[in-house]
Amino acid sequence: MEILDEVELCFPQFLNASCKKPMRTHFEIILSYITLSSITLITTTLNLLVIISIAHFKQLHSPSNLLLLSLAVSDFFVGLLMFFQIILIDGCWFLGDIMCTLYYVLDYIISSASVGTMVLISVDRYVAICDPMHYSTKVTEKRVQVCVCLCWICSIVFQMLLLSDNLTQPGRYNSCSGECVVVSSYIAGFVDLVVSFIIPVTVIIVLYVKVFVVAMSQARAMRSHTAPVTLQGSVKVTAKKSEMKAARTLGVVVVVFLICLCPYFCVALTDNLLNPSSDAFVMCLYYFNACLNPLIYAFFYPWFRKCLKLFVTLQILQPGSSEMSIL
Description:
The protein is an all-alpha fold. It has ten helices and no strands.
């Protein structure tokens, strides 16, 4: 297995103005194509199933599931953006400067919206576990819808402001034909790091630590409860168990999200001091998170498995299927 000896140009007709393709083996290129294509297909398909399931079945229209819907939408778009990564495998960008800038802007917007949604999920679980008596009045579908919309709107406005120079003059920072880069000032990059990563991650960790402490104390209280319980009391215990199970499931989603996203932002913090191979691994890990979330739902949420069965058997196409019992 030998690396290609000849230096290839992205645009041979431009000679010195063209970027050079990175030196890679045919095996590396083929493996990259297969891996990224598989992840893209799985990511878009599974997240689309989550989106359709929550949107279609009325029984799934709850505040918590609306947050999962927002996360699935961002993950679905991540899967679509991976098509651009497949195009970039050979190191050349052939879609023009405008599409390059649009790709990065969408990437940053989706990343910010995902982090914001994770914060909302943490707040939702915090209220559900730490203040269950007022959860139904504090966390309503209307309020969650407003919060999700604000999360996406703020992400769009914030990232467009940070990348305004690139939007007004696409490709201004490209050093050769076939390159796709966007550059923000040091201050803009620092603000993005603080607003899109440090503050949200701190909030998520603090809230989930509190949720974990309260959940553990509630679990010990339920285990030590030996007196006979009434029907109403048993319903309350069952509700608490259901809320803690949901918190545990969403906790797994949050932890996996942080594991996949932290290296991505750490690269930004170190000002991209990694070699190309490590940088590619960090990017793949970031994109792979969008594929993991639906798999986590499949393992932990019976309703998602039931929805998958309804999709496979085409029962979802039957009249009145939106009224089916899923939970």
